[in-house]
Design goal:
Length: about 300
């Protein structure tokens, strides 16, 4: 299916929006080219709560969340992943509520870093983030009237998780699946091969209504995920085709394959192309002139 993005989203900053019974969404006021209208924090439960993805260290977002909590017990603060638009408010909320922090581990790259990437990693990642409890696939987190199941979905980051809300058709998809845009998959945080494998994980699950980290809810999510997968595979095929024709540098691949993309987004496109090339190298379809592929490496089709 062709991808159709939903950019018609009113975030209602500062308001706890009812999504379903025992599920509310509050969007932080950190709109931007990579955060859309802001980071979504979800409040799960009625008698007691789980807070999923606290968001940026915003006084107004903190105050709005405390008001929405309304004196109820917070049993858990849960992170889908450790990018800086999701984690910074965690410490303040933990101090205020006493809740334990759950995540699939601290931030980490997928592989050994090049010298250049050491600096790049820290631009979007919370390298100081530490959870109280590390989650494994299938782990349950529960309160008085809610339960979440951990679904490990590496790809956007190595420590990305989605969470199924037990007893519902809802899945908190974090930044792995968003309805307003495709997901940034950029090394060394991101792995395209893992991202595609994680899409298959979600397709094998029963939940068909996703609540993403940015933007509006995604109905008929399986059809949308299939579209995402097709889009990525088509992009990878196009990259392999150009490399087979002798186009061996990422800037040239970006120029050819992203002709209509604004120049200010070419940097993000270059990182996406690198992620696809890493996936093609893993599959044995492309080789790199360097032992570790980088933005400045030269590539050729495997013989």
């Amino acid at each position: 299916m062709a991808l159709s993005f939903n950019t018609n989203f009113d975030p209602k900053h500062g308001v706890a929006v009812d999504i379903a019974s025992g599920v509310k969404r509050m969007t932080a006021p950190n709109s931007g080219p990579y955060t859309f209208r802001g980071t979504n924090t979800y409040l799960i439960g009625e008698q007691s709560l789980a807070l999923v993805d606290p968001g940026p260290d915003s006084d107004s977002h903190f105050d709005a969340l405390i008001s929405a909590i309304g004196g109820r017990s917070v049993d858990a603060i849960i992170l889908t992943h450790s990018h800086l638009d999701h984690t910074p408010l965690t410490a303040r909320l933990k101090s205020q509520t006493g809740a334990a922090v759950y995540a699939a581990g601290p931030h980490k790259p997928y592989r050994d870093l090049t010298q250049q990437e050491t600096e790049i990693l820290g631009r979007s990642a919370d390298l100081d983030f530490m959870q109280d409890r590390i989650l494994a696939d299938g782990d349950k987190i529960e309160g008085h009237d809610w339960q979440l199941e951990t679904v490990l979905t590496p790809g956007h980051t190595a420590n990305h998780s989605a969470f199924a809300i037990s007893g519902t058709d809802l899945l908190l998809s974090g930044d792995h699946v968003m309805g307003w845009s495709t997901t940034v998959v950029a090394p060394p945080d991101g792995s395209m091969a893992d991202y595609l494998r994680s899409l298959d994980v979600l397709l094998a699950r029963p939940e068909k209504h996703y609540l993403p980290g940015h933007g509006d809810a995604i109905p008929q999510a399986h059809a949308y995920v299939k579209g995402l997968k097709t889009h990525r595979i088509m992009r990878e095929t196009a990259i392999l085709d150009q490399v087979s024709k002798g186009v061996d540098a990422i800037p040239e691949l970006v120029r050819i394959l992203y002709r209509t993309l604004p120049a200010k987004l070419h940097g993000a496109a270059a990182m996406t192309v690198l992620a696809h090339l890493e996936s093609l190298i893993e599959a044995g379809k492309v080789t790199s002139a360097d032992s570790q592929a980088t933005l400045s490496s030269r590539f050729k089709a495997a013989s």
